[in-house]
Each structure stands twice: as C-alpha cells, then as structure tokens.
Design brief:
This protein has 527 residues and is mainly alpha-helical. The protein has 31 helices and no strands. It is elongated. The termini are far apart. InterPro entries: ARM-like, ARM-type_fold, PSMD5. This is ARM repeat superfamily protein. It comes from Rhynchospora pubera.
C-alpha cells in the first residue's frame, strides 16, 4: 500500500474503516449469517481493493485484514478462497507483513474448512503456494512466520500434503534440508520449529522426517559453537519435539547423546546451555524403548557427566543443580533407567538421596525429592514400581546409610523431617513415601512412627487442593501396602491401619461437621 499520509480519505473509505473495525472487534467467532450480511454490504472485491488503495487511511489495512480473517474462518467465507488464489499468490509476496499474514491465514482456513481436502490441496499445488509459504516462514516477521507454519501444518494433515512438503526429489529446492543449507541462522531455527510442529501430526509425517534425516539438523545446530543462542534455540525445540512425541526414541542418536555429554561436562559452556543439555538428555531417556535403541554404556556416561556436574556444584543451590537433579529423575522414571542408576551408576543415585534430605538448600532439596520419587516408581505403573533385586538392595542401602550419617539416624526419622518442612517440600515428600511404602522395610519404618501417621491422616494440615490430594494419595498408598503386608499381625500396626482406613474414608478434602438447625430467638424491635 502506497502511503499518502496527507490525503483525506473518501467518505466510502471512512465508512469502510468504521464498519470493518466494528466487524473485526466483535468478540468471539462470526457465523455464516453475520459474514453474509457483512459481505452483502461490502463485497470481497471492495475489501480487497481497499488493501491496494493509494490513499493512506490510518488503521484501514489492519481492520480490513482482521475482518477478512474472520470472514475466511467461517464455512461461507472460506468457500470464496478457491476463487481468490491470484490474491493469495500476490499476498504471500506482498511487502506488507499484515497482508502476507492474511494470505497465510487464508491458506490455513482453506484447508481447515474444505470438505474435500484433496481438491483444496490440488488448488494449492496448481498455484504453487507451498514455496511462497516457505518464503514467508523464513523471511517474514514473527507473526507472518507463525501463520505460515500453521498453514504448512494444515497441509501436512493430508497424505497428498505430505508429498508436497517432502518431495521425492532429493535435489528439490523446497526440501527442508536443502533450504536449511542455504539459509541464515534465524531461518534455520524457523525450519527446526516447523519440523517440531510437524512431528506430532501423523506417523506418516514422522516417517518422512526420518527418511530425510531431518533430526540431524537439530544436532548440527546444537553443535554449532559459533552461535550459542542458535544452539540453545535448537536444543529447546528438540526438547519440545521429544515432549510432543509418543516415541522419544525416534530422534535418539548415539552421537546426539555424546554431544550432550560433552556440553554437560564442559565448564566453559554457559550454565543455561549445560542445564538444557542435561534436561534434554533426561527427556530422551524417559522411554523404556530408549534402552533398546542405544547402548547402556552411553547412558552410563550421561549419568556420570550429570553426577560429575552435581559434585562440582555441591555447595550451590541454583537452576543448574535443580536441572541436573530433574534430569536424573527423568532417567530414573523408567524401570530400566532406575535399575541402571542404582546398580551401575550409584554415584548419581547417592547424590539424589543425599540432596533429598539436605534441608540447607530448599530448591535443591525439593528437586531431589521429586527425582527420588521418580526413581522409586512414582511415574511407573504398579507392576513396574519394584526394581531388580540388586537395585532394590542398593536403594535400601543408600537410604539407611544416609539416615545413619545424619542426626535422624533412621529412614523414618528422615521422612518425618521432610514432612515437617514447608508445603512444597511436604508435597514432594508425600510422593516419595507413597512409592517407598511398597517396600516392606520402608512400610515398617513409616508405621513405626506415629508422627508420620498423624501427619498423613490430618485433614487440616494442607490448605490447597493439590496438597490435600497429595496427602490423601499418600494415606491411601500406606493403607493399601499395610493391608497387603504381614505387619497387620502386630497390634501397633493394627491400630495404625484403623487410623489410615478412617482417614481414607474421609477423603482428601476438609469435611464440614454436620450442624443441626437451631431456632433463632430474638427480642422483637418496637418502633
């Protein structure tokens, strides 16, 4: 749009500005009837022509574009888009970012609203729209790039669309790997963001991404020492991809884990970078299948690298320490990871247990308690909570040794001490106790301390919904473990069982006492 800021808008443009502003600002979604009524007053040709007016009218472009976006988001409005492909082509190449954004949104609406997705995709192919969307993705401003990403994702929802995004010809310039090779660092990150958003769309898309070895692009950027910000962005996007995937092993490569180990162990690297590397390593190993896809020696080296960093930062209570502990919890969440940690990499498990009961560093302690809960089985199904005999022996030994080296002397003393701390630590403690009591030795420890039973059965100790539910879940877990154990033959344990069962029946929330209706008697006021 050429801007003649000194010109006075015509009455028609002024009227259009008022009407489009009112239409665009309508709260919520427009329906077909309201869109038809608006288009009867201002046909599409009038709206599109206003975007090319040589007279600048403040706010006109924004209000018309917003109105068109609302129009195209309805079934009725989207039905006009196939006849506006020349506008879309021009819009995707416009100098105005607002118009480019609208054109990207129109493609998205075309795909979302089409009854015949195949026909809509054929229109996109016939007008060569996909390469223009890629240009908007890598060259547009942040808003335009995001709209282009959404449009490409909508194309990927259909098998024919997957063929557009991942063409069979390896030399095709729109191949994402080829595009990344000739792009700036910002454009490469946007391409990685596109891969991340496409990954959860379908198994066919995942297959195409791996057939073209696109996960290697993440590794290349993470390994780019020249641009730390780009490397960190690539790591964040890969973390998001793994979180959104049903199978974390798909992007898992031995070379990637080795790269993360090197980053974690490198003291010259920024701590934020090391923290993200540790968390990404942990996230990659949250799937049980990961341990069949990669050699356990690589996992052991990762655990050693994280443990070494924890030892180095032993007296500190910062984000990097908490990230390292969280990553150990992620690895220990699977049966395989917990077994490996407790049998082959005991240093990692020892650091978690010791930090869990060290009240001198509260943030670190809470992160360690959460990690310990995961290692003990809080995130596993009931049939997978108990580990191998050797791992269970190591876990018991670590907790008893930690207790003996403290002023609490016994595991029950340690557990009671964390239950008496502030609510955040107490919540993490409930989670640990709920899984530890599935072990007979810990159940006996818990039941031997009346103070522990008093806390977990006290309906008034927690004031938040989450806290009340965590306390009750812990109470239920102890009760279930006790009923299934041989401890019930003991008179003391039988009394404990009675308290637990009563607390379980009361439920997690504060129970209001039943108050009988009382007649109100008062002196009559006289005037």
């Amino acid at each position: 749009m050429e801007e003649e800021r000194g010109a006075t808008p015509s009455p028609e443009l002024a009227q259009l500005l008022e009407a489009s502003s009112e239409f665009a600002s309508f709260p919520g979604l427009q329906n077909d009837a309201s869109v038809k009524e608006f288009l009867d007053r201002y046909p599409l040709q009038v709206l599109l022509s206003a975007l090319h007016s040589e007279i600048y009218v403040a706010g006109l472009e924004d209000s018309v574009v917003s109105s068109l976006d609302k129009i195209f988001s309805t079934k009725y409005g989207a039905s006009f888009i196939p006849n506006l492909m020349s506008f879309l082509q021009a819009g995707l190449q416009a100098t105005s970012e607002t118009i480019k954004w609208l054109a990207c949104r129109a493609v998205c609406h075309l795909m979302d609203m089409a009854d015949d997705k195949g026909a809509a995709l054929q229109i996109i192919i016939d007008h060569n729209i996909y390469p223009l969307l890629l240009n908007c993705l890598i060259d547009g401003n942040e808003r335009t790039s995001a709209a282009s990403l959404d449009a490409i994702k909508s194309i990927a929802q259909h098998p024919q669309g997957i063929a557009i995004i991942f063409p069979a010809n390896a030399e095709d310039p729109v191949q994402l790997k080829n595009l990344a090779a000739r792009s700036s660092s910002l454009a490469r990150i946007r391409i990685l963001a596109l891969i991340t958003k496409l990954y959860p769309v379908s198994n066919q898309v995942v297959k195409a991404i791996h057939d073209w070895n696109l996960p290697s692009l993440f590794e290349t950027e993470i390994n780019n020492g020249k641009d730390p910000l780009t490397s960190l962005s690539a790591m964040e996007l890969l973390y998001e991809l793994v979180e959104s995937s049903n199978d974390a092993t798909l992007p898992l490569r031995p070379t990637l884990l080795q790269l993360l180990i090197e980053i974690i162990s490198n003291s010259s690297v920024n701590s934020i970078f090391r923290s993200r590397a540790a968390l990404l390593g942990g996230r990659l190993l949250t799937s049980a299948d990961a341990y069949t896809a990669i050699d356990q020696s690589v996992v052991a080296r990762l655990l050693s690298g994280i443990s070494g960093k924890l030892v180095e930062l032993e007296s500190q209570n910062n984000d990097e320490v908490e990230a390292a502990l969280e990553s150990l919890g992620l690895i220990g969440a699977t049966n395989q990871g917990a077994n490996l940690m407790l049998t082959s990499s005991q240093d990692a498990a020892k650091l978690v247990v010791e930090a869990a009961f060290d009240r001198h560093h509260r943030g670190k302690q809470q992160a360690a308690l959460l990690a310990l809960g995961s290692i003990c089985g809080a995130d596993r199904s009931e049939d997978k909570i108990i580990l191998s005999e050797k791992a269970e022996g190591c876990l018991k030994h670590l907790i008893y040794t930690t207790a003996a080296n403290s002023s609490k002397l016994t595991p029950s003393g340690l557990l009671l001490s964390v239950l008496k701390q502030e609510p955040e630590v107490r919540l993490a403690s409930y989670r640990v106790i709920a899984v530890l009591v599935t072990r007979q030795w810990c159940l006996a420890e818990v039941c031997s301390r009346q103070d522990i039973i008093s806390i977990v059965t006290d309906q008034h100790i927690e004031t938040t919904k989450h806290g009340m539910e965590a306390r009750h879940d812990c109470c239920v877990a102890i009760n279930r473990a006790l009923l299934a154990s041989s401890l019930l033959h003991d008179a003391t344990a039988a009394v404990v069982a009675g308290k637990l069962q009563e607390a379980v029946k009361r439920g997690p929330y504060l129970a209001k006492k039943h108050v009988e209706a009382q007649p109100a008697v008062g002196t009559m006021e006289r005037f």
